[in-house]
Amino acid sequence: MSEGQALKVLVVDDTVVFRKIVAEGLAELPHVEVVGTANNGKIAISKIERLTPDLLILDIEMPVMNGLEVLTYIRKEFPNVGAIVLSTLTQKGGEITLKALELGAFDFIPKPKDGTMAENRERIRDTLAPMLRAFVRRVQITNILKGKEYPPSKAREPQRGSAGVVQRMRTAAGQKRTKSELIGIGISTGGPNALAEMLPQLPSDLDVPIVIVQHMPPIFTQSLAVSLNSKCAIEVKEAVDGHPLQPNTALIAPGGKHMKVVAGADGKNRIIRITNDPPENNCKPSVNYLFRSISQHYVGRATGVIMTGMGSDGTIGLKLMKRNGAIVIAQDEASSVVFGMPKEPIEAGIVDVIAPLNKIAEEICRTVR
Fold first, then answer.
1. What's the rounded Cα separation, in Å, for the pair 120 and 127?
2. Each residue of 215-242: pLDDT tens digit?
3. Which helix (H) or strand (E) holds 167?
4. Are the beta carbons of 102 and 196 closer than 8 angstroms?
5. What residue spans of the chain are helical by DSSP H?
6. What is the pTM for the complete model shown?
7. Could you tell me if 354 and 253 lie in one domain?
8. Same domain as 176, residue 121
9. Which of 145, 175, 200 is the last residue of a domain?
10. What gap in Å lies between CA 130 and CA 283, rounded to an integer?
11. Exposed e or buried b for every residue in 266-292, given b needs 16+ CB within 10 A?
């Protein structure tokens, strides 16, 4: 894929209706070319070499050869071909989707459960549009780091060899503060794999609670919590209303709900509240919603961590946390699948530490010791 060329997409789904909905939705987007369709994974693989797509929109549950098998194959044989998977809003769908992300899928979108064809086409088109832009940008960054094509403006070009280097910003210099008593994490696109790498690096005796907003639909966050809990020394759970904040426990906001920290009945301890308040910047759960509550209840005693993801959710909340004495850690561009969420607070000058993914756990530990 060269700069200026259309993004070539192959649509793979076993139902003719969804192939039509997705293909027609993509056809309405600029700089996107639907080069073909396939009704199962085996046919899709046979078309990849001939059609040379940049990206698959890939159903997971298909006969003959399912989406997971396709991802396994292209990871080995066509590593430059990306995939966004279509998922069902079921417990099984959530578990399979996490496996698809582990196998290299860039992101996923839930299949609509109702609505007319026209409504679903519009919904899928509008959901895919920012994902496709983020995918193209990720390809650009990958090629820059490999010394290839897509030179962007100097202001955005990452320094080669920056992966693994921790940058300590001026905002941290000379600060006198107490150790953090709560870690708040905001994350989106690329999040499940990033969390699966970072959280297991945290020790079992971290001795502070962790609260996490990962942008995901309902059901998927429960599957994510179960998967992460099996990998981590700390305990990882999907949050429930009224849950007390406990050391060495990470609570993930349930998909489709907001999560905030509030004072318990005794006025000393803190608990979780799960709410159905309106979305903020089209996000529910919202990182800003969580971070705003942390800024109020952990003045000078919190660490805010902003990681890979599209958009700018978290920046406003981090500004409030920073104003109230929090330490802010941001993931670097080279290790982010999408640099949107970390980029905004970095450019706003409120970040104390910029770290690659493999150093974030270490930096979190520094703030609580």
1. 10
2. 999 889 999 999 999 999 999 999 999 9
3. strand 167-168
4. yes
5. 16-27, 41-51, 67-77, 91-102, 117-145, 191-198, 220-229, 287-297, 315-323, 340-347, 357-368
6. 0.90
7. yes
8. no
9. 145
10. 14
11. eeeebbbebeeeeebeebbbbbbbbbb
* Interatomic CA distance for residues 328 and 342, integer angstroms: 10
Nearest to 309 by CA among 148, 210, 185: 185
Q: How far is CA 125 from CA 4, 81, 223, 280, in A?
A: 21, 20, 26, 21
CB 348 within 8 A of CB 321: no
Amino acid type, 121: R
Same domain assignment for residues 218 and 112: no
Residue of 258, 264, 214, 215 lying closest to 236 (CA atoms):
214
**Whole-number average pLDDT of the chain:** 91
Active site residues: 188, 215, 313
Place of tokens 């509550």: 293
Could you tell me if 255 and 315 lie in one domain? Answer: yes
Pairing of strands 167-168, 353-355: antiparallel
Q: Which amino acid is at 57?
A: I
Which position has the token pair 């060899």? 161
Q: Domain span at residue 346?
A: 167-368
Q: Cα 188–127–72 angle (5° rounding)?
A: 65
Question: Could you tell me whether strands 258-263 and 107-110 are parallel, antiparallel, or unpaired per DSSP bridges?
Answer: unpaired
Phi then psi dihedrals of residue 266, to 5 deg: -80, -5
CA–CA separation, 214 and 217 (whole Å)? 9
Please report whether residue 150 resides in a domain. no
User: Do 190 and 53 fall within a single domain?
Assistant: no
Return the half-sphere exposure (C-beta side, CA atoms, 13 A cut-off) of residue 265.
2
**Given 145, 176, 200, which residue is the final one in a domain?**
145
Please give the span between the terminal C-alpha atoms of the chain, in angstroms, as a whole number: 47
Residue 188, amino acid: S
Q: Is the pLDDT of residue 279 over 90?
A: yes
